[in-house]
Amino acid sequence: MSLILKKKEASRPARRAPAPKPPRSAPAPGKRPRRGLVILVTGDGKGKTTSALGQALRALGHGYRVCMIQFMKGRKYGELLAAERFLPGLTIHLSGLDSFVMRDRPAPVDVEMAHEGLALARREMLSGAYDLVILDEINVAVDFKLIPLKDVLDLIAEKPPALDLILTGRYAAPELIAAADTVSEIREIKHHYAAGVKDRAGIEY
């Protein structure tokens, strides 16, 4: 690089970091309020949580603020580590233990933590601090009888009009499918587990 170019670059004023954008739940004066959606991702294939995270990344790109509550999960998955290090607009709460949950006989602590997670989801959803709330594995929590189906339907009914809500997890109840605006089913065609490939950091967690 020539000395002239170096001098020109040195004379440029330093760029300031852009100020954080306010939540977009409240529409600007004169604009039609945006309609928040209820999106449900279910099915036995891999990719339900990662689908929701892709939606979160897209929302963050437009300055939206995103909150994810992960039910039945207690490990710091890669998305939580990334949020802590690189994504200040994404808040992730864990609402479970890093252990297997018995479908027919869930431990009292699993039920308690799922109820706490749902109460937290309701507070965050109604706080006005977020534009998108993701309830990760909520469908499984309902199917495992950790949370009553009616409580989740009531939560959907309370959703602020402009807020987007995503529900993930296999075993989605028909009532939740009916309550959603958009439903996607991820079907397993082939999985590397069948070939004996173990779960990997950055792929499964």
SSE layout and pairing:
Blueprint: H1 3-11, E1 38-42, H2 48-61, E2 66-71, H3 78-86, E3 90-95, H4 108-126, E4 132-136, H5 138-143, H6 149-158, E5 164-168, H7 174-179, E6 182-185
Parallel strand pairs: 1-5, 1-6, 2-3, 2-4, 4-5
Give a structural overview.
With 205 residues, the protein is α/β, with parallel strands linked by helices. It has a single domain (34-188), classed as Rossmann fold, CATH 3.40.50. The protein is built from seven helices and six strands. A six-stranded parallel sheet has the order 3-2-4-5-1-6, sandwiched between helices. The longest helix is centred in the middle third of the chain and has 19 residues, at 108-126. The model is unreliable at 1-18 (pLDDT under 50).
**Can you tell me the CATH topology?**
Rossmann fold
Shape type: globular
Counting DSSP E segments of at least 2 residues, the number of strands comes to: 6
Mean pLDDT: 88
Beta strand %: 15-25%
CATH class group: Alpha Beta
The low-confidence runs, each spanning 5 or more residues with pLDDT under 50, are: 1-18
